[in-house]
Design goal:
Shape: rod-shaped
Strand content: under 5%
Radius of gyration: 27 Å
Distance between the termini: 74 Å
Number of strands: 2
Structural class: mainly alpha
Order of helices and strands: HHHHHHEEHHHHHHH
Length: about 260
Amino acid sequence: MAKNNLETADFLLKRKINPNSINEDGQSLLHTAASEGRIELIKKLISYNAEVNFKDNENNTPLFFAKNPFVIQELVDNGSKVNITNKKGETPLGLFFKRKNKDNIEALLKNGANSNEKYKNEKPFLYYCDQPELAELFLGHGANPNDDFYLHYALMMKKDDLFDLFLKYGADSNKKAENGRTPLFYCTSTEQIKKLLDAKSEINVKDDNENTPLHNFMLIGRKDLADFLVEQGADISLKNRNGETPSDYYEKWKKYNFWIK
């Protein structure tokens, strides 16, 4: 802010102008200063006891209006509540996540914003992170890699960078989905299989139909993956609920593919 404008603000504040005076939306001078990124004015207002957690008509505090990380830091350093919610149940982190403002997201996480918060009261932020840089930002600030089926999703969406990231931060390689399947069932490459086995994934695990990953790869005709599993110690004699072995599944696959040619 220009020096003469600061002097004007100082002049008015010294003459007992209320630093918490509001506009028609219930927003204070601090809301405006935060939205415009005017650090010096923010400092001046706070020195005259402007309320950093003052709520407007929608229960948004100045933190919701922060233009950049410097504003966030100044407000937080002076007592702004990071995990406060507005009338929509939205936090500052949720707001800036919606706006894809990575810099402000990082500043809030560094200052204690809840990385495991449910976005829109549905799923954690991590679920919606489709870029590894953003996902790592949350994981690096305590987001739980096991509160959803992140390894499963990464494999199904063919997001190898996210798959590697979730493993790096301790995602459970034996976590079962509703159908009883672990991430191993969803691999599409031997490299993925190896990474899961290195992370202690159970090679002979069974799903709700008592199929193993080996059954699955035989059924879909991925003999290359099946062969690799066998090389790594998969049991070829295990039967599923119908008494079928992986070899039986492979015979089914060959027969089906013969008839559709």
